[in-house]
Amino acid sequence: LYYGFWLIEVDPKSFDSTGGGDCLLSTVSVGPLMIPSMTLVCLLVALGSNASVTADAKAAMAAASSLFERIDRVSELNPFSKDGMKPKGVNGAIRVQDVCFAYPSHPDYHVCRQYSLSVKAGSVCALVGPSGSGKSTLVALLLRFYDPFSGVILIDGFDIRNVNLAWLRRQFGYVGQEPTLFHGTVADNIRMGKTLATPEQVQAAAKDA
């Protein structure tokens, strides 16, 4: 705006000794006078638009902070650990004895309380029950996504906590209720569990699932 007012000239002859006088506009075109005004308008519009973006940016920063906190969190169960026994073979006999468990997000609600189950090797077992009764939880415990608070889970007589975690999970074929597909082909997704699997092994795994 200062530039616009600077373009307005004051006729010094029009001032009297008392300091009064008239301001006279010089012969200046309208264009130069409009430049500072329009610049200010554009600046205010830009600032107004950035106000909403700032709120979104703060929300995005908060979400990103939570996301990176989860990514950086170290799991208590290291799937790449070399510790634990690796039995030469597996028959598939499963025994769950007096297992108690509650999810960390709801520590006061015990999904499994003194839960026991025996499944013979080579047999087919169906777990039937209402939502929240512990069907999926039992599978998560078998794969050691979690460890029970108390009790023991045995496979062929071996406590799964003493078995190498990577070896244990390779013995299972798991299809979740809501499977998530990564970018790539179906074969690429199947190979997530065994990156060096041959096409024949991939096809066999798909048929078994």
From TrEMBL:
Query: Has keyword Magnesium?
Result: no
Segments spanning the bilayer are none
**Bilayer topology annotation:** Multi-pass membrane protein
Gene Ontology terms, cellular component aspect? plasma membrane
Q: Which residues form the ABC transporter domain?
A: 113-204
- Coiled-coil residues are none
Q: Which UniProt keywords apply?
A: Membrane, Transmembrane, Transmembrane helix
Signal peptide span: none
Give an example GO molecular function. ATPase-coupled transmembrane transporter activity
The cellular location(s) given in this protein's UniProt record come to: Membrane
Instruction: Note whether Transmembrane helix occurs among the keywords.
Output: yes
Q: Identify the domain of life.
A: Eukaryota
What is the official name of this protein in its record?
ABC transporter domain-containing protein
